[in-house]
Amino acid sequence: MMSLFADDAVVIDPHFPRSQMQGKAVITEAFREAMSGMRSFGYTIVNYCESENGQCAAVETATHHVLKQGIKRNFPQAFIFEMIDGHISRMQAYEPYGPHGIMGVFLFLVRLPQRFSKRG
User: Fold this and answer.
1) Which of 57, 59, 49, 61 is nearest to 83 (CA)?
2) Which has the least CB within 10 A, 5, 24, 36, 89?
3) What is the pTM of this model?
């Protein structure tokens, strides 16, 4: 799989301890560590779009992983791929998680009354 990546490729994925990784050696090690905690990886392609010149693609997936402990993780995910000279130069993962930081706290507080009103 690593032969698909450029030597100076960048991978950005919030699931990794270092969310931004650059260089084939760093990316290889990060993937190796991630795989060591997994029983299986699964991706079902839901949607695929490619630029006219074939240098950029977006892939929407239904992700279904199983951790070594047997815990199943199912969630939608999207990936953006950029290519240079036939190799992946950038791969970035996007997950449907809400905003973090102060904006996440603000939205939690704004939505809190809605949680209680649905129970009644």
Assistant:
1) 57
2) 36
3) 0.78
Q: Show the 3-state SS of 27-62.
A: HHHHHHHHHHCEEECCEEEEEEEECCCCCEEEEEEE
For residue 97, give Cα distances in angstroms to 1, 27, 80, 104: 27, 23, 17, 10
How far apart, in whole angstroms, are the C-alpha atoms of residue 41 and residue 50? 24
Count of other CB atoms within 10 angstroms of residue 66: 15
User: 32, 14, 16, 35: which is closest to 24 by C-alpha?
Assistant: 32
DSSP per position, 80-92 = EEEEETTEEEEEE
How confident is the chain (120 residues) per 10-residue block, as mean pLDDT? 94 89 95 91 96 96 94 94 97 84 77 71
> Residue 108: its pLDDT value, please?
77
